[in-house]
UniProtKB/TrEMBL annotation:
<feature type="compositionally biased region" description="Basic and acidic residues">
    <location>
        <begin position="196"/>
        <end position="211"/>
    </location>
</feature>
<feature type="region of interest" description="Disordered">
    <location>
        <begin position="513"/>
        <end position="533"/>
    </location>
</feature>
<feature type="region of interest" description="Disordered">
    <location>
        <begin position="1"/>
        <end position="50"/>
    </location>
</feature>
<feature type="region of interest" description="Disordered">
    <location>
        <begin position="191"/>
        <end position="211"/>
    </location>
</feature>
<feature type="compositionally biased region" description="Polar residues">
    <location>
        <begin position="1"/>
        <end position="12"/>
    </location>
</feature>
<feature type="compositionally biased region" description="Basic and acidic residues">
    <location>
        <begin position="15"/>
        <end position="44"/>
    </location>
</feature>
<dbReference type="InterPro" id="IPR027417">
    <property type="entry name" value="P-loop_NTPase"/>
</dbReference>
<protein>
    <recommendedName>
        <fullName>ATP-binding protein</fullName>
    </recommendedName>
</protein>
């Protein structure tokens, strides 16, 4: 180690006295320096190669004058957690129901979209909506049922506008006070998608009338454009508005699809109609005829025969009977039932928080009008206290929306990508590119999503991500109630053991009353079956 000495001299000394002080300090430093010793005196081996580095580099010896250059230790966070077991993520806190176990922190994972929305810390979110994405049998339905049913105890209501598989019906029937609205199958229940709905508490008369009118127009245009497979012309749009206004005036503000259908017929028969409105009423009238006289009659064309129970913990609209009539019938049913539900629950001043579970969420985005309605509903959800849960099997589901590179498909991908809270379950290999490009997920997360077990998912809440196992906290009652794969359950008996075939038992299935002819002639003679005695 280098040694330094400093000399301080008074300022009133002469030049000769200062020089004497410096010489004295130099002698002191020289006397204090240890004498140099040879390598032999220090009992060190002679270097194999002459130079300052010695045998430490050449022979791996015990000494090395050169500074070692060691790379820093690198490992994954999973292995580092084993070295530092008490270092773990703090999670989202303990507000909201328990959804599962955080596998990274080995702690219970609580989640509530409303608690995350009001969280002012860096873990907060700007939206209450949730995107659920995963392959078949990955545990999506069981996880969402766990989230929603456990949230009932926190005062949240669960609404399923359209249950295409009927899997939510058993959940609603098992919960005390749950209500099921069944459509089709001879039930006689009807929903009027043009219902006015309850008045919002904090809205003026003008605001309320404007919101009701826009919702009715949007529903009509979405139904007709979805059936026609294209956008309406300006003349058709004007004819629909005219028919709706006439129906409202004739029914004293109680319009129905049947009433609009009849008004379109009157407009189509008018020969002196201005702006060629008679031509624009033809196509929309043929579309609504399907609801009045076609395969969807008896469901949406007249006034509602059922009411929405505001106090029920869960309300499910069972549309499983209608989804067997084809994709178009299923899409029209989902639009009508969703419009009826939205007219009831869109009341911000009600101070009621609700989950709106959208099974087969891509069916709500099949036309430009329905996409615009869906986008507006997602944007206003936090103002209404609603958390929309959009469930998709894969990103490829949105390829059914419009043509390639069309405005409809781009808008659909934009809507899904803007949902901040995401639950990604196990995905197929074909989904890797779509997840990275459409949802901008990191490549390690995409690879992890391909290896997740049933019930495990990657939760993106705000700027943070969590690896959660939902079924680790499921009770036997929940597990039996939420499972949806009873038809593919394993067999009751175990056929894994090797069974020896009993030849005698086989002979009883193919009895042979005649003794076989083992001679050469018998082998060459064709077998024509047993001879009659």
């Amino acid at each position: 180690m280098a040694r330094r000495s400093y000399t301080f001299t008074p300022g009133n000394l002469s030049r000769a006295e200062k020089a004497e002080v410096r010489r004295e300090a130099a002698r002191f430093v020289h006397d204090d320096t240890p004498a140099r010793t040879s390598r032999r005196d220090r009992s060190l081996p002679e270097p194999a190669v002459a130079g300052p580095f010695g045998p430490g580099i050449i022979q791996g010896g015990y000494w090395n004058l050169a500074k070692p250059s060691l790379p820093p230790h690198q490992a994954t966070s999973q292995h580092i957690a084993g070295i530092y077991p008490f270092v773990a993520d703090s999670g989202l806190g303990h507000r909201g129901p328990v959804i599962g176990v955080d596998l990274n922190a080995d702690a219970l994972w609580h989640f509530s979209p409303w608690e995350s929305y009001i969280d002012a810390s860096e873990r907060g979110t700007f939206s209450t909506n949730i995107l659920v994405l995963g392959a078949y049998r990955s545990g999506k339905s069981g996880t969402i049922k766990t989230l929603t049913t456990r949230s009932i105890a926190f005062g949240h209501q669960v609404v399923v506008p359209s249950d295409p598989k009927g899997e939510w019906v058993s959940v609603a029937e098992a919960i005390p006070g749950g209500k099921v609205i069944r459509l089709g199958g001879g039930t006689g229940a009807r929903l009027n998608p043009l219902d006015r709905g309850p008045r919002r508490t904090d809205s003026t008369d003008e605001q309320h009338e404007q919101m009701v009118k826009q919702r009715r127009i949007g529903t009509l245009i979405a139904i007709i454009e979805m059936t026609l497979g294209g956008r309406l012309t300006a003349v058709e749009h004007a004819a629909i508005l005219d028919a709706l206004d006439r129906c409202i005036a004739r029914t004293h503000d109680r319009p129905t699809l049947r009433g609009v259908y009849e008004e379109l017929g009157r407009i189509a028969g008018e020969t002196d109609a201005a702006f060629r409105a008679a031509e624009g009423a033809v196509q929309p009238r043929f579309v609504l005829r399907r609801f009045v006289e076609g395969d969807l009659s008896g469901l949406f064309e007249d006034e509602s025969t059922v009411t929405f129970d505001q106090d029920a913990p869960i309300v499910v609209t069972d549309t499983s009977e209608l989804f067997a009539r084809g994709d178009l019938a299923a899409q029209l049913t989902q639009v009508c039932s969703t419009a009826w539900i939205q007219a009831v629950i869109a009341d911000r001043a009600a101070k009621r928080t609700r989950y709106v579970v959208r099974e087969e969420g891509w069916r709500d985005m099949t036309s430009l009008a329905s996409l615009q309605m869906f986008q507006q509903w997602l944007k206003l959800s936090r103002h209404y206290g609603i958390s929309n849960i959009v469930i998709l099997h894969k990103m490829g589901d949105l390829d059914a929306v419009g043509d390639a590179d069309s405005l409809e498909r781009s808008l659909a991908y934009s809507i899904v990508g803007d949902i901040e809270n995401k639950f990604v379950f196990r995905v197929n290999q074909q989904e890797q590119t779509a997840l990275r490009q459409r949802l901008n997920l990191p490549a390690p997360h995409v690879e992890m999503a391909r290896q997740l077990r049933k019930g495990e998912f990657i939760a993106y809440v705000g700027q943070y991500s969590y690896l959660v196992d939902c079924f680790a906290t499921s009770t036997p009652w929940e597990f039996e109630l939420f499972k949806t794969d009873d038809a593919v359950a394993p067999a009751d008996q175990d056929d894994a053991q090797l069974r020896v075939i009993d030849t005698g038992e086989l002979d009883s299935y193919w009895p042979d009353t005649l003794a076989p002819d083992t001679s050469l002639e018998g082998w060459l003679t064709p077998n024509t079956g047993p001879k009659e005695q």
